[in-house]
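Figure 3 (text version): structure tokens given as input.
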């Protein structure tokens, strides 16, 4: 009882999930398993199991309205569905719809039906049918006069597949690139496509009278299948070509033996038109005289010219005929040829040359391509001479470096290409074929024709330079011209038509553009401060087929304009407040102004100046270094608040500037100023006594030292040491009563110390003298005070320095000049390291040029003997030598000064 209840519940659940969907591909063999109903229902059942599934059987119900279902599928008792035959979706289903069949299956328990299932079987369409055109080939007709966008309809293709993708057809036109046709497709109301051939250009039947196109219909299935429709297009003729004679001038000869019924000459013409437009008739032109017409008869249809019965064969004469050839078009077109008939009175005829061109020709004009291969056959020559014997033996000759004449047998020749043809070198080739017989006298015939060489795009464009360099200015308006790029291409037509473009590897777009004529211009205003140099390439391309190209490098340098005003980097605030406590023993420099300018060259060459607030002329500002210092000694009354208006200006054509205000609070008291003056207060008597002692001791010491030095130099005389002795008595100098003369040479000063203004400072340390470094003052950057305070006692000098007595004339003495320096300064410090004041700084003296000499003197009046100070005049420079003896001499002077 319990088992029956469970079975009933299970069947009820199956009834709720009865509809099943299966898929099967068409084309499967019979007895292909479609699905298992029992298994799928069991899978769908999530409540009960199928322990008693053997009690359930399945049976396919027969559709009384459609008995064919039984033939398609079979349902076994166990619930498995099989195909009974090979399925064909195109037969069973409609076009472009879902293809399926409904199978009704009864579910029975033992002998009772408990459920009817509807099983939907979807038949999957496979791409087993190709698109098909109703015809394999169609013919269309266009007239020469048809305009652009003229259309002709063609049939569309049909695909018998029922699947959406398998039956979707895409059309493609296969043609040559130069054929002026295109394909247009549109959807009809019924769903298929309407195909139309559209004329895209002008037709010329004489150039090409037919075209062969292919329409490819391809479905969207996998794999794709296609069908091809051949389209033959015929161009119908219009009378747009006049008849053309095979020769512009016919030159024939007749003799006494000429038969009256035989034509003297046969005219031939060629008309590129068709039908009546190509039907030609011949007539005597009005230029032919009536007397000449009486001797000849002209066949208007064949162009044959006969001699009349009254033609005078016994006279040697030349007749000139003008013949018109007219076609039958509407309106008719015509052309004229000249016929020259020569009457000969002997049986020796000149050879006759017939030329037949292989390619297209107009009269005596032949056209070939410059790409023609060597050995190509371009013309057939046939030479005839009706004479017998040696009079009929003919030899022919063609003299040209590009073509040659090859014999094909008796009286037959061919003209072949001997060497490559280059249209850029030779556009037109004039050919002269001469044939001469062996008669007596020998007769010769010449045949001239011209070969016109058609261009092939075989030369790539060439730039006149590999690198183009241009200068342009910043801040110009867009479209400002930069330069011209020139390239040439000797090809004709599209092959010689050039177009230019710009190439760059930069991430940002170039601010330039180039025209079709090679003119480069800006697309926006340039800013040199952002970028001052542009490097890119120019591509030139011709319009030939295939297209050829070339590249050239372009460098554009942006010239600076004075568009940026200088600005102060120190001080960075305006106004700038500064408290200055004056100390006479400190350097006179107050501060350094610093400014910058984004421009370059003269536009960034800066000058500093004081505009206001310096009415007392207490301050000086160096124009190029920006150093602000005191102009003179400071007094207590100078203590005040000074507001200096300072400007910095560039050197551009239009000067730009910036200003700032320095608020200086100067403090100078009697205490600080009197400190130095007290130390220098010494009685005159003490100065005189100490000065006398110093002079005596120094003179004796220096004299002894110099004598020893001279003796050593004489013993150790070496010319490579570059030491020389001036033995002129007038040149000897005396230092404090002693006569001495010492010389040595200086080392070369490095070039980086070259400047318009250089200061040399001598600073005594621990009562000894030291030669200080040169201080350079460049125009654009300032070196701090610590630079010229460094010890440079070992700095080599370039010439000699002589110390002179006070009673000698300074104009006869030589001084050391370290070229190329032009300024010199002496400074002194005490042992107490108290620094120096304005009074300790000697003035700068302008020195002469490189390797010149000047006298410096030491006078007692310029010296002040003190325990703390020893001022040295700017006019006295102790001798500096590379020799050891001279260094000892210098030390003796120092010891004397200490005592």
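Below: residues designed for each position.
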């Amino acid at each position: 009882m319990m088992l029956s209840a469970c079975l009933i519940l299970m069947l009820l659940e199956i009834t709720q999930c009865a509809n099943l969907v299966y898929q099967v591909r068409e084309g499967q063999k019979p007895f292909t398993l479609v699905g298992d109903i029992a298994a799928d229902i069991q899978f769908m059942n999530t409540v009960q199991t199928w322990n008693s599934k053997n009690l359930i059987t399945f049976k396919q119900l027969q559709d009384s309205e459609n008995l064919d279902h039984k033939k398609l599928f079979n349902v076994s008792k166990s619930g498995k569905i099989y195909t009974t035959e090979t399925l064909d979706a195109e037969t069973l289903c409609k076009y472009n719809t879902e293809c399926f069949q409904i199978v009704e299956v009864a579910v029975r328990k033992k002998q009772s039906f408990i459920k009817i299932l509807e099983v939907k079987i979807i038949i999957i369409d496979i791409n087993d049918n190709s698109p098909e055109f109703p015809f394999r080939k169609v013919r269309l007709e266009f007239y020469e006069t048809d305009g652009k966008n003229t259309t002709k309809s063609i049939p569309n293709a049909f695909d018998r597949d029922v699947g959406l993708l398998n039956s979707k057809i895409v059309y493609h036109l296969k043609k040559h690139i130069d054929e002026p046709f295109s394909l247009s497709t549109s959807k009809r109301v019924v769903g298929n496509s309407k195909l139309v051939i559209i004329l895209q250009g002008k037709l010329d039947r004489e150039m090409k009278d037919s075209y062969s196109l292919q329409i490819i219909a391809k479905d969207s299935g996998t794999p794709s299948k296609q069908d091809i429709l051949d389209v033959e297009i015929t161009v119908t003729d219009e009378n747009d070509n006049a008849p053309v004679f095979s020769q512009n001038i016919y030159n024939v000869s007749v003799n006494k033996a000429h038969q009256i019924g035989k034509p003297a000459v046969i005219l031939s013409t060629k008309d590129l038109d068709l039908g009546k437009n190509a039907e030609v008739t011949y007539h005597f032109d009005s230029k032919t005289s009536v007397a000449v017409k009486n001797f000849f008869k002209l066949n208007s249809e064949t162009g044959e010219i006969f001699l009349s019965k009254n033609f005078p064969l016994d006279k040697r004469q030349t007749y000139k005929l003008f013949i018109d050839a007219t076609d039958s078009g509407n309106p008719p077109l015509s052309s004229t040829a000249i016929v020259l008939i020569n009457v000969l009175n002997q049986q020796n005829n000149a050879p006759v040359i017939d030329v037949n061109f292989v390619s297209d020709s107009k009269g005596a004009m032949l056209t070939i391509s410059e790409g023609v291969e060597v050995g190509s056959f371009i013309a057939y020559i046939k030479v005839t001479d009706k004479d017998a014997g040696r009079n009929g033996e003919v030899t022919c000759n063609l003299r040209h470096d590009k073509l040659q004449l090859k014999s094909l047998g008796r009286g037959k020749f061919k003209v072949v290409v001997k060497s490559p043809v280059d249209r850029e070198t030779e556009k037109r080739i004039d050919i002269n074929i001469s044939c001469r017989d062996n008669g007596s006298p020998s007769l010769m015939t010449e045949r001239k024709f011209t070969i016109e060489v058609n261009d092939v795009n075989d030369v790539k464009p060439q730039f006149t330079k590999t690198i183009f360099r241009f200068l342009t200015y910043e801040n110009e308006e867009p479209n400002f011209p930069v330069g011209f790029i020139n390239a040439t291409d000797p090809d004709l037509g599209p092959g010689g038509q050039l177009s230019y473009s710009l190439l760059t590897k930069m991430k940002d777009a170039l601010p330039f553009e180039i025209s079709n004529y090679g003119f480069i211009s800006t697309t926006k205003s340039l800013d040199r401060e952002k970028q001052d140099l542009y490097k890119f390439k120019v591509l030139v391309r011709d319009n030939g087929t295939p297209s050829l190209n070339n590249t050239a490098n372009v460098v554009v340098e942006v010239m600076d304009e004075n568009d940026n005003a200088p600005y102060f980097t120190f001080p960075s605030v305006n106004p700038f407040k500064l408290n200055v406590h004056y100390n006479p023993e400190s350097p006179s420099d107050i501060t350094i102004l610093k400014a910058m300018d984004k421009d370059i060259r003269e536009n960034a060459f800066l000058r500093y100046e004081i505009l206001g607030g310096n009415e007392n002329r207490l301050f000086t500002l160096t124009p190029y270094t920006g150093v602000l210092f005191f102009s003179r000694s400071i007094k207590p009354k100078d203590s005040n608040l000074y507001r200096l208006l300072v400007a910095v200006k560039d050197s551009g054509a239009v000067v730009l500037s910036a200003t700032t205000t320095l608020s200086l609070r100067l403090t100078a008291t009697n205490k600080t100023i009197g400190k130095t003056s007290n130390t220098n207060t010494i009685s005159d008597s003490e100065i005189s006594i100490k000065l006398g002692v110093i002079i005596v001791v120094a003179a004796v010491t220096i004299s002894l030292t110099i004598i020893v030095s001279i003796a050593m130099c004489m013993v150790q005389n070496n010319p490579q040491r570059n030491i020389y002795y001036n033995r002129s008595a007038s040149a000897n100098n005396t230092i404090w009563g002693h006569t001495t003369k010492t010389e040595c040479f200086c080392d070369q000063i490095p070039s980086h110390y070259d400047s318009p203004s250089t200061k040399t400072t001598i600073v005594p340390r621990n009562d000894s003298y030291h030669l200080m470094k040169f201080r350079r003052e460049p125009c654009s950057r300032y070196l701090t005070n610590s630079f010229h305070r460094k010890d440079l006692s070992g700095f080599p000098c370039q010439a000699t320095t002589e110390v002179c007595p006070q009673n000698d004339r300074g104009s006869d003495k030589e001084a050391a000049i370290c070229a190329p320096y032009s300024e010199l300064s002496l400074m002194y410090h005490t042992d107490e390291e108290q620094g120096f004041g304005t009074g300790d700084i000697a003035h700068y003296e302008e020195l002469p040029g490189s390797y010149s000499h000047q006298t410096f003197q030491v006078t007692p009046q310029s010296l002040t003997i003190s325990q703390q100070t020893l001022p040295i005049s700017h006019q006295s420079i102790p001798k500096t030598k590379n020799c050891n003896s001279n260094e000892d001499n210098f030390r003796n002077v120092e010891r004397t000064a200490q005592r």
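The radius of gyration is 59 Å.
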